[in-house]
Amino acid sequence: MQSSQRPAEADDNAAMRDSRSGPGGLVYSTDGGRMCPGCRRSLAACVCRAAAVPRGDGRVRVSREKQGRGGKVVTVVRGLALDDAALAALGKRLRAACGAGGTAKDGVLEVQGDHVDRVLALLGAEGHAAKRAGG
Fold this sequence. Notes:
alpha+beta; two-stranded antiparallel sheet; 3 helices
């Protein structure tokens, strides 16, 4: 009887091994650090995140905001269809031209101060069809 039980046990073990090798797999490795769940490579060498589509709807809007910023005025640029590196580089050029600080986060450029007209002119010179938004 034991000979008939062994193939069944082997089938159960094979099924358990197959369920463990599914997409859940490796989450962290000391060799490469954090791993991407999609392509199972380290986050630095991830190929599925690099192919992400840039944010933006093609309509670049430049507005002036003051709400929730402690009374400080900020020029905000939304809708740029650029990846993070290009967005950061454009933000750096805009901040240098305006002589102000700012940031580039979540697909939005922020330049400290009221520089809407200057930012519109600079975006137009770089080939972006930007328009003023808000009041």
